[in-house]
Amino acid sequence: MATDIKKIRNIAIIAHVDHGKTTLLDKLLRDSGTLKASEMAQERIMDSNEIEKERGITILAKNTSLTWNGYQINIIDTPGHADFGGEVERVLNMADGVCLLVDAFEGPMPQTRFVLQKAIDLGLKPCVVINKVDKENCTPEEVHEKVFDLMFELGAEEWQLDFPTVYGSAKNNWMSDDFRNQTENIEPLLDMVLAHVPAPKVSEGTPQMLITSLDFSSFTGRIAIGRLERGILKEGMPISLVKRDGTIMKSRIKELHTFEGLGRKKVQEVIAGDICAIV
Predict the structure, then answer these.
(1) CA atoms within 13 A on the CB side of 278
(2) Number of H helices and number of E strands within the chain?
(3) Nearest to 227 by CA among 243, 211, 240, 244
(4) In the beta sheet, which residues pair with residue 232?
(5) In whole angstroms, what is the distance from residue 274 CA to residue 226 CA?
(6) Quick check: 58 and 13 in contact, CB under 8 A?
(7) Is the N end or the C end of the chain the one with fewer CB atoms within 10 Å?
């Protein structure tokens, strides 16, 4: 569990369908040593929903977390389809940066545009990953130009247009800051996130958490997932749930969980800036 806010990074991954996002997440979790041996053999680990497995796409936003060089990187997997726009906007509120994943042959696609626009408007720092540079006839340099043009078109500010880029092949398990220079692993991508995505900004005051998604367990009922904006949450503490219409419901935290790899870990307390699940 992160005890120092400076050691937390919250990043959302944006990608068009089939540009390799789920494969990349699989490799990140494996390379950082987050997965247990029993999970190593699974493919498309993050797509847990039955329809997602069947169609091979990501519909629901999901959270995972990995530890790298003493930092906790919370990764929010966003849906690629414009149909799930409301879901996208809610989950981007949990992030401080976005990782834009683009195919080195196809370049940025229309559906990437929609999510990227939301991320730029929210003032998130973009990092770019140009994937599948092993494809025949791919043009990584041209794709990089197209990404720049797209961000410019979407009204990105100067500090957002000055985005870091890594190139590589998630399938072949390598990333590099130069597509001609193949490395042995995807560590350059993790290093890019630590170097360019800021630590979470938190405000002073009483605990406040924005619920961005809900989960359900047949044992405990509804589970609220979101990012703690202020204060500290502890197991057993009394809280107030503010509904959209302004009504307030008194409640108590039964259990607190943070994300770890593909699962959740029960914790006693959560600090501001971290993403957690509350029962």
Answers:
(1) 28
(2) 7, 16
(3) 211
(4) 271
(5) 9
(6) no
(7) N
CA distance 238 to 43: 41
- Angstrom CA distances, 133 to 56, 100, 103, 130, 145, stand at 22, 15, 8, 7, 15
User: Where does the pLDDT of residue 264 fall: very low under 50, low under 70, confident under 90, or very high at 90 and above?
Assistant: confident
**Tokens describing residue 169:** 């092949």
Contact assessment for residue 80 and residue 57, using Cβ atoms and an 8 Å cutoff: yes
Q: Per residue in 136-162, pLDDT tens? A: 899 999 999 999 999 999 999 999 999
Listing DSSP states for 115-183 in one string gives HHHHHHHTTPEEEEEEE-TTSTT--HHHHHHHHHHHHHHTT--HHHHS--EEEEETTTTEEESSTTS--
For residue 28, the surrounding DSSP H or E stretch is helix 21-31
Please enumerate, as own/partner, the contacts of 50-59 that have beta carbons within 8 Å and a separation of 24 or more.
Answer: 56/18, 57/17, 57/81, 58/21, 58/22, 59/84
Supply the pTM of this predicted model: 0.84
Tokens 């959560």, residue located: 270
What Rg, from alpha-carbon coordinates, does the chain have? 19
Give burial (CB, 10 Å; 0-12/13-18/19+) of 185: middle
Residues 217/277, Cβ–Cβ less than 8 Å? no
Q: Diameter of the chain by CA atoms?
A: 60
Read off the DSSP letter of residue 200: P
